[in-house]
Amino acid sequence: MTRLSKTTYPDRSSLHLGRRTFLTAVGTAAATFATGVPAHATAHARDAASAVEYVDVQLLNITDLHGYLQAAPGSNATITGNGGRTYTVGGVAYMAAHLAGLRAGRLNSLFFTPGDAFSGWEFDAAAFADEPTVEALNRMGLDFATAGNHEFDKSPAMLQRHMEQGVPFPVEGRDATFTDSSGARFHGSDFRYYSANVVRSADQSNVLPAYSIEKVRTAAGQELQIGFIHLTALGTELFPGSYQPGLATLDEVATADRYAALLKAQGVNAIVLSMHDGAVAGADFNSGTDPSGPALDLALRVSPDIDAIVTGHWHTRFNMMVPDPHGVPRPFVEAGCYGQLINEINLRLDPTTGKVVRELTVSTNHPNTRDVTPDPALKEVVDYWAGQAAARDTTRIGKQTGSFLRTRNTAGESTMGDLVADWALWAGRRPTDPENDANIHPNVPAQLAVVAAAPRVGQAIIAGDLVRDPASGGAVTFGRAWRAVGFGDPIVSATVTGQQIHDALEQQWTIAASGELLFAPLAVSKNVRYTFDTLGEAGDRVNPADVFIDGTPLSLTGTYRLASPSYTFLANDGYGALSGFEAPYRHQRDFESFVAYVRETATLTPAPLSRVTAANTTRRGADVGIVLEPGPLLLPDGAPMPRAEAAIVSADRPHADRDDFRPPC
């Protein structure tokens, strides 16, 4: 077909159609956000099935895969679309098949993710340092990735040196650098990670490249550029899993505007924002109803030079057009989580200027249904790692001479609590790890440890009992140790005062609205002894003179190095007295660290329950307090919520949305 002359292009003044259709005032914009399937910027886009005078560019993205290679977990495997129709979704083998169909015949197609692809919650991926996820993404041809908060769950060095470059981290074949489904050692990702707003707090330097520029071609073979700005969720460095004392996150709008201007100055006239922060906008995955959240606030304010906004992090599903500050519509999308959806944005570029013809933009969320023939190469990857995980699950790493149970005595002490507190002390004394490069304070060894054995809010780091198996001679397997402790947060050693330690011990008791005394016991390491008075009022039960660390009474004015999960230091489980800690040093993640502890200890033996004493228990008026035993958080289908997700959803922190919605990651 002969290329049409420029005079036959749609009149650029037709952008005023978008301004009439989409309101710009934040308070009244929500009424315009419900869209059909797919989302069209204007009626021009609906009518223009093809436009040979422009350059078609297909953008495909997935978000928050979290290592779920086999399928989406539980009720997440069912999603609702237009008209209330439901779909069964999930699994990278099916995703690869859908991707092949979507890419077929497309000259210019880019595939990316706005974050949380790994740091998986599925054992098959997490037990192998998330290398299975990277192998799957490599096989599917991922072009680039925005770093989400979970990409920082270990360290920037882990992300760059291992996940990108394939450097062993730390022990090849045991902790990382496993043999993949092709028989080769892990070589890293075939794609790069980006973030414009994660910086090192010491000098504000970027941890990762801020933006990427991708090349597309016209039918005549000329190159055009599309710039991608990448943002990571604000506050990532203070989330319990990605807690990194040496990092900071910059303001999202200011950062996006800065790099949009920079890209424009370099002659890049088509710009996409890929951001790991999200919104909530109803249940239909191909529309948006009454949206709210930080990503929406950004979408209404961020530079009009940005032509599309792709979000993640909130595990929600929507597809809509929203007005930029000039009133011109642009896509605003999120593709769910766990491989539920593939979002497709189709841009039309002016071949002369490289600008996006915004009124012709179309966006669609495609369900990753399981009613297609799975891609054989990806099915091979999934099956291989499932087999590897099954074998690793039963690998012996130590032994136990007795059972460790969460059953508590009168003073709230248990053998499982004592074991976990002793592990935390061990973890807080570990030598400096050179790959853990986001610490800015010295690694001063911990002097004691506390662990929330049964917190009133949030989740207990203790996941279950560690019962001795007589048939195996008391073998502790990799899988049993992995599942006994943790939800993906690091142990942190930090400086606190004796007063803070005392106050945290007092915070074990509170008064419920009903007037009952509640008890949320803390487990303490083996070098700590203390007594509490069962006759005392809440807040006045522990005499500092009755608290001993290595046999020496607690000094309220002294300072101590305390080891505890980041979750506890950040008061996610309700012990706010410790939140004023100083000089924190991040150690290894909990389940990986506990496995290492079992390996090094070799033989685990339950200790006598003698660390905590309840005084005056036989006196009239004595009250130890009621320990709440909440059941596990459940998904809508009744299946248990993944522990890492449950820890975040139930944490003692403000909810992020006016409707009390809380992002689960």
Description of the structure:
The chain is an alpha/beta fold. It contains 16 helices and 31 strands. The strands form eight sheets. Strands 1-17-16-2-5-6-7 form a seven-stranded mixed sheet. Strand 14 and strand 15 form a beta hairpin. Helix 4 packs antiparallel against helix 10 (about 375-395), helix 6 runs antiparallel to helix 10 (about 375-395) and helix 12 packs across helix 15 (about 590-600). The longest helix has 18 residues, at about 375-395. It is elongated, with a radius of gyration of 27 Å. The two termini are about 50 Å apart.
In short:
The chain has 665 residues and is an alpha/beta fold.
- Largest sheet, strands/sense/barrel: 7 strands, mixed
Low-confidence stretches: 1-36
Strand share of the residues? 15-25%
- Average pLDDT taken over every residue: 91
Helical residues, percent: 10-25%
Rg calc = 27 Å
Shape summary? elongated
Given the helix and strand composition, which structural class is it? alpha/beta
Distance between the termini: 50 Å
Number of strands: 31
- Walk across the major sheet and give the strand order: 1-17-16-2-5-6-7
Number of helices: 16
Topology:
Layout: H1 15-21, H2 26-29, E1 39-40, H3 43-47, E2 55-61, E3 78-80, E4 86-88, H4 92-103, E5 109-113, H5 123-126, H6 131-140, E6 144-146, H7 156-164, E7 192-194, E8 198-200, E9 211-217, E10 223-232, E11 247-249, H8 252-265, E12 271-276, H9 294-301, E13 308-311, E14 317-323, E15 329-335, E16 341-349, E17 362-367, H10 376-393, E18 396-400, H11 415-427, E19 448-452, E20 475-477, H12 478-484, E21 490-497, H13 498-506, E22 509-511, E23 517-519, E24 522-524, E25 528-533, E26 547-549, E27 552-553, E28 559-565, H14 566-569, E29 582-589, H15 590-601, E30 603-604, E31 612-615, H16 643-649
Parallel strand pairs: 2-5, 5-6, 6-7, 10-12, 12-13, 13-15, 18-30, 19-28, 25-31
Antiparallel strand pairs: 1-17, 2-16, 3-4, 8-11, 9-10, 14-15, 16-17, 18-20, 19-24, 21-28, 21-29, 22-23, 25-26, 26-27
